[in-house]
Give the backbone structure.
Amino acid sequence: MTTQQELVSRLRPLGMRLTPQRLAIAEVVVNSGDHPSVKEIYERVKEFFPYVTLATVYSTLAVLEQAGIVRELPFPKQSRYDANLTPHANLVCLGCGCVVDAEVGQETVTELRRLVEQGTSFQVSSQRVDFYGWCAGCAHARQRAAAVEAKPAR
């Protein structure tokens, strides 16, 4: 978990005005394991700072991305933000839309990147690996729904 003081030391050199709202936005993104969307970040910060604006969220995210603290993960419905910049895979639920880091496979993603760079003349600047499926809750709901449908009518 990144502390507010650690964020201040990373953000101050960027010349960003460090308001409590901007620090809260940075904290939400950096300390969230669920890759929040702009709307989710806004709602979480709004609980503590009711007057925060969406414009402040967007501008803060742009600075955080330029600084290499977070990266935007564009998806068809909405972008999400990830503070884990190390090579890893994301697990994307087709049911509820949640996005989390896979707890396994980091070494494989790193090795794949190395192989691509060694085996081609391509210079990799970043990579993104997503696995699509169903989180435990959505998979369970799908199984229950399938069991109900499979039950013969009386």
About this structure: The helical segments are 4-11, 20-30, 38-46, 54-66, 106-119, 136-150. Strands lie at 71-73, 80-82, 89-93, 99-101, 129-133. Residues 4-80 form a domain with the Arc Repressor Mutant, subunit A fold (CATH 1.10.10.10). The first helix runs from residue 4 to 11.
